[in-house]
Design the sequence.
C-alpha cells in the first residue's frame, strides 16, 4: 500500500513539474499571456503568397495615395479666406462648447504674497497714448437700464463701491504667466449698482436672471485705440475686477492707471488698461486682438 | 519554404494610424508657432544651458516668427481631430481585442532589453513574441499614453480656471505648460525612432500598415506556432 502511495505521489510531482514547465513557457511567450490572436492564411508557396498579396497591395497603395493627395491638395488649394473663416468658426464653436461647461462658481486659485512675480511684467502699450491726464479722468458708462445717455463717473465714485482684493495668475496669450495682486471693485458689484439694460426691456436682475441682460460688454480706452469685447458671464465672474491697485500700489500709467480690468477668466489681451468707456450691448463688440486673428472669447 | 499571409493590421487601425500622422504634424507645427512667442525651455546640465529650444536659425528656416494667432487658431482646430482620432483608436483596440497585441505584459521590460540588444546585434536570440515584440509593446503603449498626456496637459493650460482642479493637480499652469512641451519633444523622438525601425524592418512590414497583410514563414511567424485561419 505504502509503495503504491509512493508511486502516486511521484506521478503527482511529475505532473506538477510538467505543469510548471508549461507555465514557464506560457509566461515567457508574450503573445500567449493575453491570448493574442493571429490571423493567418493556410500555408502557401512563396510564389502563391506573392501573387495573392500583390492585388491587395496595389489597392491599398492606390487608396492611400489618393487619400494623402486629397488631404494635402485639399488643404493647399483652400483659399486663405476659406481657411480663415473655417478657423474663425472653430473659435466660435469652441466658445459655445466652453459656455456649455462654464460655471461661475468655479474660481481660479489664489496665491500667497510670497509667490508674487516682482516686478510685474509690462506688456502692450496700445491705447496708452502720451497725452493723458489721470487727474481729469472720468469713466463713461453706456447701455444702462432706464437711461439712454452715458453716465459719467469719477474714480472716487468707483472706489466708493465694495473693495475686493485677489492674488491670481495672469496668463498672457504668448504663453507666460505672472502672479499679481489686485485691488478694485468686482465688476459684478459695479453692475449691481449701475445696472445693465436687458434684452426685452424688463427690469434687470443680475443675481437671479443674468441671462436676461444684454449679452456683451464693450470696453474702450479714452483714445479709442484699444478696445475689447466681453461676454456677460465672464465679466460677472466674481474674480473679474475693475482694478485700481496692483501689488498694493495705485496703478502706475504703464499698468493702466487709473482703472483697468483684472481677471483670471481670460488671457491678458482682454484685460484692458486705462478704461475710458464701458458699454453694455446686445451686439458682439469689436475686439482689438480678435481683429488680428486671435480668439474673441479667449476664455479660461 | 512554405509561407502564410498574415492579416496583420485591421482596416480601422491602418486608417487611424495614418490619419494620426498629419494630425500630429499639424499639432506640433501649430504648437511651434505658439511656443515661439514665449520660447523659454532649454536643456540644462549643472546650471548651464547646453541647448535652447530653439536656436534662431531654426525659427528662421521654418518661417515660424510672428505667427502666434495663426498657431493658436490651427491648434484649437486640429485639437478636436487629434483627440477624436486618439479616442476612436483606443476604443477600437479595446473592443476588437487588438489591445492584446499592444499592451506590455509581465516581463515585457526585461525582454524589451533583450529585443534592444538583438536590434543592436549584440545578442542573436530574439525572445518569443506575438504580432509585436516587447520593445514595440512598450513603445506603442507609451505613445498612446503620451497622446492622452498631451490632451490632459493641453486641457489644463487651455482652461486653467474652469479646470483649475486639473491644472493644480499637474502642479500649476507653468508646470502643465512645461509637461505639454516635453511630451511634444518625446513625440518627435518617438517619430524618429519609429521611422528608423520601420526602415530597418523592411518593405514587407511597411506594406502591412498600408495593405493590412504581410508574408510570414509558415512554420514560425515571428517564432510563434501558426494558428491557421481557413
Sequence:
Amino acid at each position: 500500500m505504502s509503495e503504491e502511495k509512493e508511486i502516486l505521489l511521484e506521478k503527482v510531482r511529475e505532473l506538477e513539474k510538467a505543469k510548471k514547465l508549461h507555465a514557464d513557457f506560457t509566461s515567457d511567450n508574450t503573445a500567449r499571456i493575453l491570448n493574442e490572436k493571429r490571423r493567418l492564411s493556410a500555408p502557401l508557396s512563396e510564389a502563391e503568397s506573392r501573387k495573392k498579396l500583390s492585388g491587395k497591395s496595389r489597392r491599398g497603395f492606390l487608396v492611400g495615395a489618393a487619400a494623402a493627395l486629397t488631404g494635402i491638395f485639399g488643404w493647399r488649394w483652400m483659399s486663405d479666406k476659406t481657411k480663415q473663416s473655417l478657423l474663425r468658426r472653430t473659435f466660435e464653436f469652441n466658445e459655445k462648447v466652453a459656455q456649455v461647461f462654464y460655471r461661475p462658481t468655479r474660481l481660479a486659485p489664489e496665491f500667497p504674497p510670497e509667490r508674487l512675480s516682482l516686478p510685474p511684467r509690462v506688456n502692450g502699450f496700445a491705447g496708452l497714448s502720451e497725452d493723458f491726464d489721470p487727474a481729469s479722468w472720468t469713466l463713461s458708462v453706456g447701455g444702462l437700464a432706464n437711461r439712454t445717455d452715458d453716465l459719467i463717473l469719477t474714480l472716487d465714485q468707483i472706489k466708493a463701491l465694495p473693495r475686493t482684493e485677489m492674488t491670481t495668475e495672469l496668463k498672457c496669450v504668448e504663453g507666460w504667466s505672472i502672479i499679481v495682486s489686485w485691488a478694485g471693485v468686482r465688476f459684478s458689484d459695479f453692475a449691481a449698482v449701475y445696472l445693465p439694460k436687458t434684452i426685452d426691456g424688463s427690469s434687470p436682475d443680475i443675481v437671479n436672471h443674468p441671462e436676461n441682460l444684454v449679452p456683451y460688454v464693450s470696453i474702450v480706452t479714452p483714445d479709442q485705440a484699444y478696445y475689447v469685447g466681453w461676454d456677460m458671464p465672464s465679466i460677472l465672474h466674481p474674480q473679474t475686477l475693475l482694478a485700481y491697485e496692483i501689488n498694493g500700489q495705485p496703478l502706475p500709467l504703464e499698468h493702466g492707471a487709473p482703472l483697468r480690468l483684472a481677471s483670471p477668466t481670460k488671457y491678458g489681451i482682454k484685460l484692458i488698461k486705462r478704461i475710458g468707456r464701458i458699454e453694455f450691448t446686445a451686439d458682439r463688440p469689436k475686439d482689438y486682438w480678435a481683429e488680428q486673428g486671435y480668439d474673441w472669447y479667449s476664455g479660461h | 519554404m512554405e509561407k502564410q499571409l498574415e492579416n496583420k493590421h485591421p482596416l480601422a487601425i491602418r486608417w487611424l494610424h495614418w490619419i494620426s500622422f498629419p494630425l500630429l504634424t499639424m499639432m506640433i507645427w501649430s504648437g511651434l508657432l505658439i511656443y515661439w512667442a514665449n520660447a523659454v525651455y532649454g536643456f540644462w546640465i549643472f546650471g548651464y544651458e547646453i541647448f535652447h529650444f530653439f536656436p534662431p536659425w531654426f525659427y528662421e528656416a521654418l518661417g515660424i516668427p510672428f505667427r502666434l494667432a495663426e498657431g493658436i487658431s490651427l491648434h484649437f482646430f486640429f485639437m478636436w481631430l487629434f483627440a477624436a482620432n486618439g479616442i476612436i483608436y483606443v476604443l477600437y483596440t479595446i473592443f476588437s481585442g487588438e489591445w492584446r497585441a499592444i499592451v506590455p505584459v509581465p516581463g515585457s521590460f526585461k525582454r524589451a532589453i533583450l529585443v534592444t540588444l538583438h536590434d543592436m546585434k549584440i545578442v542573436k536570440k530574439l525572445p518569443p513574441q506575438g504580432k509585436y515584440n516587447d520593445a514595440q509593446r512598450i513603445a506603442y503603449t507609451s505613445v498612446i499614453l503620451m497622446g492622452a498626456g498631451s490632451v490632459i496637459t493641453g486641457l489644463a493650460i487651455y482652461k486653467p480656471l474652469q479646470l483649475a482642479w486639473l491644472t493644480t493637480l499637474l502642479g500649476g499652469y507653468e508646470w502643465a505648460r512645461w509637461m505639454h512641451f516635453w511630451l511634444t519633444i518625446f513625440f518627435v523622438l518617438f517619430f524618429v525612432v519609429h521611422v528608423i525601425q520601420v526602415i530597418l524592418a523592411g518593405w514587407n512590414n511597411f506594406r502591412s500598415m498600408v495593405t493590412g497583410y504581410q508574408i510570414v514563414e509558415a512554420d514560425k511567424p515571428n517564432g510563434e506556432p501558426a494558428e491557421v485561419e481557413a
Q: What stands out?
A: Confidence is low (pLDDT under 50) at residues 20-27 of chain A.
